[in-house]
Amino acid sequence: MLDFAKLVFTIHHVDRNTFSSKFWERIVLPAIEKKDSRLCRFLLTIMTGMTTDQWDYCHHYLLEGLLSSMTNQDKDTSKVIAWFITKKLFRSFGKSVRKYITDIWPAFLCNCHRKQHEFCSDKFAIYIEMNTLRPDLPETFWKIDVKYITDDRAKIRQSSQIHEHLQNLSGNIHFPDHKSISGVDAKQLFNEHSNLSLICKSPLKSIGFLQKKHKVIEQPSIQLYCKRKGLIPVGENHFPRAINGLQTDVLEGSPHFLSQLKIGNQVGTDEFKMGTLGGFVQVRGDKAFLTCLHVFLSADELAADNISLDDEKTVPVKLYRKNENSHVCGKIREIAFEVDNEKETSIDAALVEIPVDSIDNSNYVDVDNVQVSFKDIGMKSEYLNSSCVDYKPLLFSIPKPVLRTVSVGAVSGCFDGNKAQVEANKEKCIDLEPIDKIYSRAVLDEIKRNVNIVINHLQLIPIAVLPDDNIIKTSIQQNCARNLSFEIKNIIIDVIKNIYPTIHCTSEVDIDNFILCKTNSRFSAIVGDVHMQQAFLKTTGKNMAIKRTSRRVYNQLYISNIPFQPGDSGTCIYVLSPVQGCIGMAIADHPQGGCIATPIMDILKHFKIRIK
């Protein structure tokens, strides 16, 4: 029978719903056995309009044909059939499910190492990439497994391990400059492999991951990142083992543009605290955001008379999001920590310069599963320059107006309230760091310092056995300050007796863990005794005893009924009524609840930012 006659015959059966086993055995399956992918495509196109009941009756013939084509290493016909089934699955979903699907593709599981065949297994499945998983999604379709993929970069262990290895690498690894990937080669690879997401050169190579013997070696390679490792889309080949003489390293992962910055994001540095991205500003043609300076500096630095940053180095600022690796989102451009002057408005702020395309006007606020624009929080534009609220009418009006406000703290989250009022702040002292933390750290530092002194002395004298209490006490008397308290001496003895047998583990981290875990009750008693602490600090750490632990701030606002927790520093307070715009930036919590905030107009004026 001619191909044209087979097509007419198929139309006849579709119109009359007269499909029988003979039709499949005489028309469709022979076309598959002959590897006639073109005829197979035409036949399935005609059969697209078949009802669900019709396919329930005869879909097993199509699955039989798919298995046959994969066994025959016929990737063209297999691709036709696999994609036909995939499209049927997609069309079976309602609109409520489709809107969450970002991609769908048929693939088989690769379980070989030689990669000599088109199909190295018959383990076929349909993979669906989704933004959000739903509980009503089917696990099979026509007895074919359906797998769902969400973008969870935090769980890609192999790529994360290579990233950590690169960051911890010391020294330089030379990559052969003459080895390169041309644009033509790259285009061909992307055309041949739809699962491929990124190609790059690397001085490292990952080996033994699938065998659970993973390690990273220093060997130049071509990294091929794919959506899912070990899955090969039907109709495509395995990844090449080498490109231009360099071995390939197949990794799982996809490139992502730097995340859009949002009001309420958590920002900071790995070394110190974290705070909140409060609001965006335009600064002489550049874009930046505001947060508190104390987010980036330690209490020691804030206590200094002259606060400055190293002008020879860039100070990067990181963005932290749940289930994502932190990444640099900007750099500190200007800083201000003007306090202790009652004639001026105290300023604790940092301007962080950001890339031009970092703001999404329609997705402006860090709120889960909801898009909030700048207009929704009372802003005229995405920048504070044109949306500042003068606090004076709100502060001195009689009666005092009740405000509807929106605040988005990195810890407290988004808060939309209608009970806030503005008052003059009467609480002048702001702690740079809680007193108990300073005392605790001072005591701990002194213990660690004396432990190291005693260990260094014990290593210089010949001791046949491990040092006992008497030997350690003698060393303490000979080498440490005479006015050490009885409690401190006992803790030093405990620490040394426990870590001396494994002297190679006497790093500061190990000493910290031992003191806090093994001598917890004794150490807690010392830390809790304020009078003992003060006496101890005077005799053992003069620099700590005179250290300033607080500053006085002036001309600040007290805004009631605003949630504030550690980590919310930098949160901007946005007013929706009776006026609209940003009124201030929160710097600390208030004893009566709410927050202490710096007037936003004063911050912008300090940085000489024009207010429209």
What features would you describe in this structure?
The structure is a single chain. The chain is α+β, with helices and mostly antiparallel strands and 612 residues long. It has 4 domains: 3-150; 153-252, no CATH class; 266-430 and 552-606, Thrombin, subunit H (Beta Barrel); 435-545, no CATH class. Helix content is 33%, strand content 24%. The strands form 6 sheets. The chain has a 7-stranded antiparallel β-sheet with strand order 13-12-16-17-18-15-14. Helix 12 (469-479) packs across helix 13 (486-499). The longest helix has 24 residues, at 435-458. Mean pLDDT is 80; it is low at 505-509 and 518-547.
Structural class of the helices, strands and pairings? Answer: alpha+beta
Total domain modules: 4
Query: How many strands, what sense, and barrel or not for the largest sheet?
Result: 7 strands, antiparallel
Radius of gyration: 34 Å
Task: Count every helix, treating DSSP H or I runs of 4 or more residues as helices.
Answer: 18
Q: What is the number of E strands?
A: 27
Quaternary: single chain
Share in helix: 25-40%
Order of strands in the sheet with most strands? 13-12-16-17-18-15-14
Mean pLDDT: 80
Give the end-to-end Cα distance, rounded to a whole number of Å. 81 Å
CATH topology of the largest domain: Thrombin, subunit H
What share of residues are in beta strands? 15-25%
Which geometry do the CA atoms define? extended
Features:
7-stranded antiparallel β-sheet, 612 residues, Thrombin, subunit H, alpha+beta
Summarize the structure.
The protein is 33% helix and 24% strand. The longest helix has 24 residues, at 435-458.
